[in-house]
Design a protein that fits this description.
The protein is mostly helical. It is 41% helix and 7% strand. The protein has four helices and two strands, in the order H-E-E-H-H-H. Strands 1-2 form a two-stranded antiparallel ribbon. A hairpin with a 6-residue loop joins strand 1 and strand 2. Helix 3 packs across helix 4. The two termini are 25 Å apart. InterPro entries: DUF6146.
Length: 143
Amino acid sequence: MILPFVFIVLLIASCKSYNKTQIINNANEDSLVENDTVSISSDESDYEIIIIEPGFNSWLLSSARPEGFHSQQWLESRNIIMVQAWNQRNMQPSVYDPNLYELRIDYDANTDYGYEVNYKLYNYFLYFQIKYKQRLSSFIPRI
């Protein structure tokens, strides 16, 4: 699948010290639906993530807990766990579907990515787990 690949490329690029970096897979640019693209940026930080995943935006608006429900610290702690699980799966392509875990995520626990980036990253992980029937942590989300 190309969508998790694009997401991870964008996450890796955004977690470095780039300022408002945007990466879009040009091969799929024409087939993207605007509502399926979520751009995450924050005035709190210089990081931006672009998630291109059909259905994620509508799921985020209709099913995810509202912004402010969880603290940034809580979201960061969950993101650290899920990024670690993701990266472990990325390093085991013979065990886990390499089309789902194409690239390693460079998420630094000591970097303040801001609330919005952490909120949408966390919710992308929830959406990913539901859509692809994966489990990235022992934490079972309530939706």
